[in-house]
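Section 5: illustrative case.
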């Protein structure tokens, strides 16, 4: 991913007890710095992000790997796109707050 723009798609789905379901997707573009092998190795040794999509933790030291992020919901890259979830809930009758 070094020196590239990488696109992450994060999906969510609400399932109703009556069998209906509602889905959404969020796109985040990550602009990765140009990295050398030694820097990548230091990051992996320090963070050990082996269970993460893209093998980085943007909520941790992985943010140092980026030049920038583009997307409407910063939560989507970490896991659950909360803005999209609230919109889906509101669209289907559950308004928060």
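Designed sequence:
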């Amino acid at each position: 991913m070094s020196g590239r723009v990488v696109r992450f798609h994060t999906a969510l789905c609400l399932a109703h007890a009556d069998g209906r379901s509602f889905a959404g997707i969020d796109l985040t573009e990550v602009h990765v710095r140009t990295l050398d092998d030694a820097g990548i190795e230091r990051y992996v040794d320090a963070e050990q992000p082996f269970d993460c999509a893209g093998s980085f933790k943007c909520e941790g030291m992985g943010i140092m790997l980026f030049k920038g992020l583009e997307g409407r919901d910063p939560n989507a890259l970490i896991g659950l796109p909360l803005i999209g979830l609230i919109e889906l809930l509101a669209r289907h009758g559950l308004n928060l707050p």
